[in-house]
Amino acid sequence: MSAPFGERLAGAVAARGPLCVGIDPHVPLLADWGLPDTPEGLARFTDAVVDALAGHVAVLKPQLAFYERHGSRGLAVLEEAVVRARAAGALVLLDAKRGDIGSTMDAYADYLRPEHPLAVDALTVSPYLGPGSLQPAVDTARLTGGGLFVLARTSNPDAGTFQHARVGERTVAQAVVDTVRGWNTPAWVVGDPLPDIGAVRDVAGRWGPGTGSFGVVVGATLAELDVDLDGLGGPVLAPGLGAQGGSVADLRRLFGAGRAVVPTVSRDVLRAGPDPTALRAAADRWTAELAG
Q1: Where is the active site (predicted)?
Q2: Does residue 225 contact residue 173 with C-beta atoms inside 8 Å?
Q3: Looking at the whole model, is its pTM more than 0.90?
Q4: Angle at 173 between CA 233 and CA 210, to 5 degrees
Q5: In 3D, which of 14, 9, 36, 10 has the Cα closest to residue 25?
């Protein structure tokens, strides 16, 4: 078992800043780089991003779908890239958004096992089948030192259709946040009463040795923060910076100062390629703005 993901993430953020860069090799972006929509083009794109950024940013977040669409050759590209990225010091968050039950969820969680050919540091997961459905992934993460980011309050236009639905006195989104807060509290398991927020207030929203390994996904482009993140104990993955309209000012408006937030940017950095110096400079601009 490696050190828990939350601790490794806090260390990476302290050394490199909180920026997470998504690796999203979609067809128009490959074309913008002058690359074909083939496994060879995919490999050239991915190698360039990893070479430019893996020794530079805290987190790289490859989107699994863009590799799966090329079949086994695409997955082979991703396998090699993940190994190289982690060797260069970046944490790798696999954006897979997996969610299922029983042995199927257990198999998805194998991405967190060090012996897996595509072993990563953390995984995005979907809670739609209920909190208990994610327990195999939680167990694997605890065993291996991996991390999970659970979809909670996304900012796509119709997200509220489900996320604002109510479960008793809470919205579905709040129920997700509360469940993840429980996972960051020692000895809490699904089915137990939720812990008192005050009991975990000391690790709520701050980077440090106590940062939990279980986080939530909350969009950086929300009009307002309509979930209570107090006492979460783990990080918030905040996608949407740059091309999707989110800004550093939005991060501060939504999350305040000091909270353990991992801001994610993709196109606003990737479109600077394929020149590695330009890619690194684009990431540096975001890192400097986040530190300002």
Answers
A1: 97 (proton donor)
A2: no
A3: yes
A4: 5
A5: 36
Structure tokens at 247: 């800004």
Residue 231, burial from CB neighbour count under 10 angstroms (0-12, 13-18, 19+): buried
- Kindly report the number of other CB atoms within 10 A of residue 61's CB atom: 25
Contacts of residue 193, Cβ cutoff 8 Å, sequence gap at least 6: none
pLDDT in tens for each of the 292 residues of the chain? 689 999 999 999 999 999 999 999 999 999 999 999 999 999 999 999 999 999 999 999 999 999 999 999 999 999 999 999 999 999 999 999 999 999 999 999 999 999 999 999 999 999 999 999 999 999 999 999 999 999 999 989 899 999 999 999 999 999 999 999 999 986 544 455 544 433 333 344 567 778 999 999 999 999 999 999 999 999 999 999 988 889 999 999 999 988 999 999 999 999 999 999 999 999 999 999 999 8
- Name residues whose C-beta falls within 8 Å of residue 253's C-beta, 6 or more positions apart in sequence: none
- The token pair at 181 is 């807060």
Could you confirm whether 97 is annotated as catalytic? yes
* Domain residue spans of the chain: 5-291
Which entry of 86, 97, 116, 170 is annotated as an active-site residue?
97
Q: Which residues contact 121 (CB under 8 A, 6 or more apart)?
A: 5, 8, 9, 86, 91, 92, 93, 112, 146, 147
How far apart, in whole angstroms, are the C-alpha atoms of residue 50 and residue 21? 10
Distance CA 199, CA 202 (A): 8
What is the CATH T-level fold of the domain 5-291, as seen in this structure?
TIM Barrel (3.20.20)
